[in-house]
């Protein structure tokens, strides 16, 4: 009898460990400079981690300098690991579309080039459907007064950016760029998405 109980407990523990291991999902967004956008998603409840990196280009393991030329075809993106029990993909899309200008092609503010394009790299058919539906609704309601040009593309290889790009705002909050460009975005986030913040 003890052996049966031990076997059942072991099986139950393994099942729980497997279930816990599958609690997170990935979302990947490009919405301009990843220094700004990383700081936004790091503040959301349910977001486990945010990595700045490059996706959608023609070469493997690009450097920041190569991506900045615009010739590699990569976008500066965020790979977001999140717990769908705490924040939904739809919630992440809402923050994505309300935290940048999705109507400007290859430009966000002063940043210009294909590396700053607005793009959703989807990981599942469900993510694709939600992103396309949300984009269609924004255009149907003329939410921005202009057409949303955000690309919705299948996820491609993601390359983590150099270490000095990670946690940029956290590590450089007093830098002029952070105070002038990133801080206003975070203040807007706190007003619009207060209930979703950690």
From TrEMBL:
Major enzyme class: oxidoreductase
The Peptide methionine sulphoxide reductase MsrA domain, residue ranges: 26-178
InterPro entries hit by this protein: Met_Sox_Rdtase_MsrA_dom, Met_Sox_Rdtase_MsrA_sf
Pfam families per record: PMSR
Catalytic residues identified in the record: 33
Residues spanning the signal sequence: 1-19
Residue stretches in coiled coil: none
GO molecular function, one term: L-methionine:thioredoxin-disulfide S-oxidoreductase activity
Catalytic reaction list: L-methionyl-[protein] + [thioredoxin]-disulfide + H2O = L-methionyl-(S)-S-oxide-[protein] + [thioredoxin]-dithiol; [thioredoxin]-disulfide + L-methionine + H2O = L-methionine (S)-S-oxide + [thioredoxin]-dithiol
Domain of life according to the entry: Bacteria
Annotated keywords: Oxidoreductase, Signal
Family affiliation: Belongs to the MsrA Met sulfoxide reductase family.
UniProt cross-references to NCBIfam families, sorted A to Z: msrA
PANTHER family (UniProt xref): PEPTIDE METHIONINE SULFOXIDE REDUCTASE (PTHR43774), PEPTIDE METHIONINE SULFOXIDE REDUCTASE MSRA 2 (PTHR43774:SF1)
Function: Has an important function as a repair enzyme for proteins that have been inactivated by oxidation. Catalyzes the reversible oxidation-reduction of methionine sulfoxide in proteins to methionine.
Annotated protein name in UniProt: Peptide methionine sulfoxide reductase MsrA
Organism listed in the record: Pedobacter jejuensis
Organism classification: Bacteria, Pseudomonadati, Bacteroidota, Sphingobacteriia, Sphingobacteriales
Annotated gene: msrA
